[in-house]
Amino acid sequence: MHNTKTSILVIEDDEFMANLLQFLLERQSMKVTRVADGRSALTLINQGHPCDAVLLDLMLPQISGMQVLKHLQQHPDWTSKPVLVLSAIDSGADIARAFQAGAADYITKPFNPEELLARLVRCLAKQQGDGPGARCS
Fold it and tell me: Are 103 and 79 in contact (CB under 8 A)?
């Protein structure tokens, strides 16, 4: 994948889920940065925090995941970073809205850990080859 350690930003308010994601990603030798609400995510994004991909929950306190996603797509340093939405929301309309807002992939909770990792690795590989706006699925 990368010569340097792959860095993933996890934006998830559920502590159990965030811990699980961190465990899964670190087990794959990825570096994980976690934030638990939309406002903290926007602060990190605006500071230009470096990462290779984002795992984003939609149901966040303070600022919604959808607002965070839209902000990511408008921020020049982040438009090429794949954003994988990881949400319990499984309505077709919400999934379509997430893709329209710039999500690279959408995974519903509960999720299969192997599938999540496979989709993430695929997104990272496509990002390197296809550039901005690459879809992963």
Answer: no
Sequence-ordered list of residues with C-beta below 8 angstroms from that of 1, at least 6 positions apart, any chain: 121, 124, 125
Two tokens, residue 136? 């992963």
Q: What is the dihedral of CA 119, 84, 26, 43, to 10 degrees?
A: 160
Residue spans of the domains in the chain: they are 7-130
Is the whole-model pTM more than 0.85?
yes
CATH class, range 7-130:
alpha beta
Assess contact for 98 and 72: CB atoms under 8 A: no
- Per-residue pLDDT tens for 2-61? 446 899 999 999 999 999 999 999 999 999 999 999 999 999 999 887 899 999 999 999
